Amino acid sequence: MLEHLDRLPPDPILGLMAAYRTDDDARKIDLGVGVYRDDQGSTPIMRAVRAAELAVLERQTTKTYVAPAGNPAFNDAMRRLAFGAHSALGESDRVCAVQAPGGCGALRLGAELIRAAVPDATVYVSTPTWANHVPLLSGCGLKLERYPYYDPTTGGVAFEAMMRALEKLPPRSVILLHASCHNPTGADLEAAQWGELLGLMQRRALLPFIDMAYQGLGDGIDADAEGLRLLCAALPEALIAVSCSKNFGLYRERVGCLIALNQNAAAAGATLTQLTCIARGLYSMPPDHGAAIVAEILGSDTQHAAWRSELDEMRARIARLRVAATRALAEACPDEDFSHIQRQRGMFSYLGISPQIVQRLRERHHVYMTEDSRVNIAGLRLQNIPYFAAAVAAALRQ
Ligand code: LMR
After folding, report:
1. Is 168 assigned a catalytic role?
2. What is the Cα–Cα distance from 203 to 266, expressed in whole angstroms?
């Protein structure tokens, strides 16, 4: 039976990670997968995470099952982090939350929930969007369409085109939005634009499905959730997929949460039963360890503050790298404009170069990035930025 299966090409992001590992050139630079790195090029376990992990292990007395909805303390903490410590939504009975295996798991739970509610629903994703949004959302049978988002001429959001497209959508369309640190472009909506978007969503009765995978890595924990909070304070319904991979550095532990804002408490109760039933059918229960660590950190003011200050350091480092990379590229490539890199937020930016040049950078200069020229800024180091800029200049000339 299995002999008829076709061999599939490698995943565009994970395939690059594997190729990088087999490259033994000392100058190699991995700007592919979205993983934070420090000035030594490693992805250390955050100090707050290590301390919480030891406390969790010390206290843990059993490995018995938790529940399909996961750890309640974690889910409550995720709600407060998303909506803000003083928001009524943090405690509201209109909201339910379910722990998920990573942000990916949360996205898939949300997609399955939409499919259960409206089987022929269409989800609209930005052009471009994170490559894995496509299989995650359409894999359960939802239709996927696109709306314009990135303007390569400005390096910002093509806001008018986006609004024009969304204005035409039928009611009950689902709009996948990135809360901040847009993946892959680094181009985010401004506060006033979130306000205009809210008006449109109210007028057209659209449902926001918000992917928040980089909270704290753009402008800060609260600033990165501002648009999401504006929408959720005013709309009757919303779905939020949260990931703790990047801001807690818990990548391999698979920690995420699906938060659903409902019209009322009865609807929230029903949604929760749907979500736990979907979880049970997909993976039964989420892994516990990473969520227990996050609950431990966010459950203590001291540990919470320690984690935030580490996250602040990471964000500041990315900002420094953005400035340094923009400057180095301006010097190495005086005929090109890479100034958008400094203006953008989060881990990613597009270089805006062709797939051929991307390939040249990989094969001749050992600089790895996805084919669309997305670079993980956090993968740079101040020491290798001159090499990176010289490699880009050489690849553009060759
Ligand atoms: C990325 O965009 O590189 C990350 O979110 C990792 C992944 O799973 O694709």
Report:
1. no
2. 25
Second-level CATH architecture of 11-45+304-397: Alpha-Beta Complex (3.90)
CATH of domain 65-299: 3.40.640.10
Q: What pLDDT score was predicted for residue 310?
A: 98
Task: Give tens-digit pLDDT for 10-58.
Answer: 888 999 999 999 999 999 999 999 999 999 999 999 999 999 999 999 9
Q: Is 246 a catalytic residue?
A: yes
Model confidence at 208: pLDDT above 90 = yes
- Nearest-Å Rg of the Cα atoms of the chain is 21
Residue 314 identity (one-letter amino acid): M
Ligand 1 pocket check for 34: Cβ under 6 Å:
yes
Cβ 49 under 6 angstroms from ligand 1: no
Query: Which residue's CA is the nearest one to ligand 1's atom 9?
Result: 13
Q: How far apart, in whole angstroms, are the C-alpha atoms of residue 276 and residue 397?
A: 55
**Which member of 100, 130, 224, 389 is catalytic?**
130
Q: Is 28 a catalytic residue?
A: no
203 pLDDT band, cuts 50/70/90, is very high
Ligand 1 center to 130 CA (angstroms): 8
- In this prediction the pTM is 0.96
Catalytic, 63? Answer: no
- What's the pLDDT band for 398 if we cut at 50, 70, 90? confident
Query: Which residue in 246, 328, 391, 393 is the catalytic one?
Result: 246
pLDDT of residue 296: 98
CA 348 to ligand 1: nearest atom: 2
Q: Which of 211, 260, 292, 324 is catalytic?
A: 211
Quote the CA–CA distance of 348 and 375 in Å, as a whole number. 6
Q: If we measure between CA atoms, which residue out of 224, 108, 226 comes closest to residue 176?
A: 108
Q: Where are the domains of the chain?
A: 11-45+304-397, 65-299
DSSP string, 52-109: HHHHHHHH--------TT--HHHHHHHHHHHH-TT-GGGT-TTEEEEEESHHHHHHHH
pLDDT of residue 47: 98
Q: What ligand 1 atom has the least distance to the C-alpha of 370?
A: 3
Q: Ligand 1 mean position to 212 CA, how many Å?
A: 13
Please state, rounded to an integer, the average pLDDT across all residues of the chain.
Answer: 97
